[in-house]
Amino acid sequence: MKNRMKTPGTSTTEAVCRRIHGTALKAGGERGSRIANRVTGALGLGTIDLSEDAR
């Protein structure tokens, strides 16, 4: 796993949400993305919507 520094101006909450979402998208595709949104939403971290081009 790469040691990535978070982008300046990005909150810890957003960084965690993006990490969970990216991992789920990579592992489970669109279905993983939907599951990640449910999990991060329930944890109060927010959700990430994919554009039609990304699907």
Structural description of this entry:
The chain is an all-alpha fold and 55 residues long. The protein has a domain at 12-45. 56% of the residues lie in helices and 0% in strands. It has one helix and no strands. The chain has one helix at 12-42. The protein starts with 11 loop residues before the first helix and ends in a 13-residue tail after the last helix. The mean pLDDT is 84.
Terminal Cα span: 25 Å
Strand portion: under 5%
Q: What's the number of extended β-strand segments?
A: 0
Mean pLDDT across all residues, rounded? 84
Given the C-alpha coordinates, what overall shape results? globular
What is the ordering of alpha helices and beta strands?
H
Low-confidence spans:
none
Number of helices: 1
Secondary structure: helix percent: 55-70%
Q: How would you characterize the largest beta sheet?
A: none
Question: Given the helix and strand composition, which structural class is it?
Answer: mainly alpha
Radius of gyration: 11 Å
